[in-house]
Amino acid sequence: MKRLVIITFLASLGYGQGNAEHGKVVFEKLYCSACHGHDGQGGSSGPRIGTKPPAVAVLIAYVRKPAGGMPPFTAKIVSDADLTDIHAYLSSRPAPPALKDVPLLNQ
Ligand code: HEC
Fold first, then answer.
1. Which mutation among 25, 27, 29, 49 tests ligand 1's pocket best, with the greatest number of atoms within 8 A of CB?
2. pTM of the entire structure?
3. Which residue positions in the chain have pLDDT lower than 50?
4. Do residues 75 and 9 touch, judged by C-beta distance below 8 A?
């Protein structure tokens, strides 16, 4: 019970959910942004991963062992904690506007 209270308290502080600001730094430093775009919106070669990235565990597993054209990033290159921060950063990216909210498309 006590443990649950402590975990809930830490979660309320955002602990364990990643630091989006630091995630942005790592995302740029490792060139994730070169393929996925600065907001993870999708880029020249990588698909959209911003706004709604895969769950943290799925993202970490994928980055360690990608299936296609993406290079693998081992734990020596990027820690699980840094990938959790990247996940927080990607989750904080705004969604693209709905087409009905783009004035130019609604004349
Ligand atoms: C050289 C280009 C490149 C770089 C650098 C790169 N990616 Fe990717 N990524 C891809 C491509 C292309 C895919 C699509 C599947 C594939 O080919 O592996 C992908 C897929 C993904 C997926 C799976 C998306 C899904 O919907 O299943 C995630 C998550 C991801 N990348 C995260 C990252 C992160 C985090 C980094 C930086 C640590 C990164 N990528 C760096 C090219 C890149």
1. 49
2. 0.86
3. 10, 14
4. no
